[in-house]
Amino acid sequence: MHMLSRIRNLSSRCQSCLLYHMYNFRSQNAIKSYSMLVNMESQIQEERHQSQNGASATTSSSPGSSVHSNSNQSVTYVTMPSKVYDVQKQQLKTLHHLMWAHRVWQDAAKRADSSTLDMAFISGLEKVCGQLFLDAPLEKLCAYMLTAITWLRAEYEREKVRAPPPTVKRTGGVS
């Protein structure tokens, strides 16, 4: 279907804008979480320092490791409070939204650059709606998408009523 690449491009642009807004929505929490992690890290370092000063000299495990240093295992395990783990997990989710927003946006741009029909479609949309950016307000994204869908639907309706192309009849030609 000749509209498929334009639909795919619109979908990618919409998805990347929504991912960016998800990141932006969570970004204030990410800043707070980072501050919380910094505070927790200093507390953990202080507790570790206190426990090392009070511990006997016979301990053979390395700091931050649950595997003894004389063990032949190559895997090192780091233990952390579950609260730290949960905060770090939230940080990764937030950054994941930003990373995917940029990646999907760049992929859509590359795909559009390889198709003159897609570029003409996007240029027309930008003339009517203004240029769409990754961080565009949701209202602008909605207007952009509604305009694009209206255009694609009108094109589809025109093609539906247009007579199908004539079929070539094969005749018993030279064998």
Describe this structure in words.
- The chain has 175 residues and is mainly α.
- It has a domain at 4-39 and 80-161.
- The protein contains 4 helices and no strands.
- The chain has helices at 4-54, 82-113, 116-129, 138-161.
- α1 packs antiparallel against α2 (82-113).
- The longest helix is centred in the first third of the chain and has 51 residues, at 4-54.
- The chain is elongated.
- Residues 56-62 have low confidence and may be disordered.
Query: How many strand segments?
Result: 0
- The structure class reads mainly alpha
Could you give the order of the helices and strands? HHHH
Helix fraction by DSSP (H/I, runs of at least 4)? 55-70%
What's the average pLDDT? 84
Shape: elongated
Count of separate DSSP helical elements = 4
Strand content: under 5%
- What is the radius of gyration computed over CA atoms, rounded to a whole number of angstroms? 29 Å
Unreliable spans are 56-62
Q: What kind of assembly state do the chains in view correspond to?
A: single chain
- Profile the largest sheet: none
Distance between the termini: 35 Å
Q: In summary, what is this structure?
A:
It holds the Pfam family AFF4_CHD. The chain has 175 residues and is mainly α. The chain contains 4 helices and no strands.
Secondary-structure map with pairings?
Elements: H1 4-54, H2 82-113, H3 116-129, H4 138-161
Domain AF4/FMR2 C-terminal homology: 9-156
Pfam families: AFF4_CHD
Biased composition (Low complexity): 54-72
